[in-house]
Amino acid sequence: MTEHLITHLRHVDIAMPDFERQRAFYTGLWGLTDVGGDTDVRFLAAEGSPERYIVRLRKSPEKRLDLVAFGAATPADVDLLAERLAGAGVNLVHEPKALQTLGGGYGVRFFDGDGRVVEVSAGVETRVHRRIEEREPIPVRLSHVVMNSAQPEATVAWYVKHLGFRLSDTLRIGARGEFMWFLRCNALHHSFAVARGPHVALHHASFEMRGIDEYMRGSGRMLRNGVEKVWGPGRHHAGDNTFSYFLDPVGNTVEYTTELELVDEDTWHPSVHDLTNAEIIDQWGTANEMNEFVAARSFNDVDKGLFVPPPV
């Protein structure tokens, strides 16, 4: 694929039985705004983002990732992408059509190589957003999502081949080999990444804060409210972004971050960063040790939604 038809990350949609507790966490603690829905589906926006919503919660008997959604510039690009995907044998959930979710638009859904549902859309209505104020510790936007895969090399190759993502950097752990690949669809170092895991699942969803002070204040709010911290606060080397990872009420890992690196497409060359170097793990040296326990918290539960389209 020569053209870069994917422009940006739009939203991540998750389902769970404990719906009300999940909604209360994301709106009452995490800092998102409930902008609509019904008793079983709620759409949550970031005050600093023009996206109509960045997280969709759905009540379901089973915990699953419903889908991850990306943007395209025009409906014609959605059609072109769908034509190429179908021609390459990719299983479409539905052909390009008018979307019935909040914000509307025109989009196509399909299964990636691991069985996740991916949506690409254009013409979605924007929302009136605002500048996040100094010391206001709420997300500006959805920064990136990371997925676990038992066959990560094949998953990375799928996204590069079919969706035109570019590899920014790779992480490895000494002789144990490579375990995370950062992919970009625009100037941000990564909007999507793939981690090696024991099964397919959501690894984490990351939310951009206004700056370092807001990031630390948000992290502190989680700690004061007894939200389980997985890892942080610290600063990654690959991507150069800050990190504080927590568990939401149903065990998904969510991250506060800021200052994700911008990449010059004309000069950037991917590197392999070895986490046996402590400064690669955390430039600041402030985070708790990255050990097997921390890694296992982000393995998450086996995704029950593989190759099964969500009902909405």
TrEMBL record:
A Pfam family: Glyoxalase
PROSITE patterns: VOC
CDD domains: BphC5-RrK37_N_like (cd08362)
InterPro entries noted in UniProt: Glyas_Bleomycin-R_OHBP_Dase (IPR029068), Glyas_Fos-R_dOase_dom (IPR004360), GlyoxalaseI/FosfomycinResist (IPR050383), VOC_core (IPR037523)
Domain (VOC): residue spans on this chain: 8-123, 141-259
Protein name, UniProt field: Oxidoreductase
